[in-house]
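Task card 7
Instruction: Convert sequence to structure tokens.
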Amino acid sequence: MEYISVVQFAEKFGISERTARNYCASGKLEGAFLTGKTWNIPADAVLPQRKTVRKKVSPLLTMLREQKATRLKGGIYHRTQIDLAYNSNHIEGSRLTHDQTRYIFETNTIGITNEIVRWVLLIMSRRFSTFSRGQSVS
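Output:
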């Protein structure tokens, strides 16, 4: 029987030498044996099949995807979106309450109250004042 080296086996199948050595050490290559520090692999050895790894989808992820697709109100996905919107806006300096954020998220409209109008005017004035301070348009 004719034997080849790890380097030749790796070149033959287009894999790394390290992978070929791992196949030999784990017994995945039939007939391969170690002589000193060198692996001898049968010339007619075939590349072992890799196991297909199936990713398990968590039940929570499945539930979130279903709720997103059906646009279910009051579910985990809906509440998470409201909480994320509220916290993100709060970090940016928004003074909207959690209920006001929920109302805007659910209706896609702004219920006009004095506080919201003041908040919008304040934001607009800040943006225009920073724009007119030192930035010139050429």
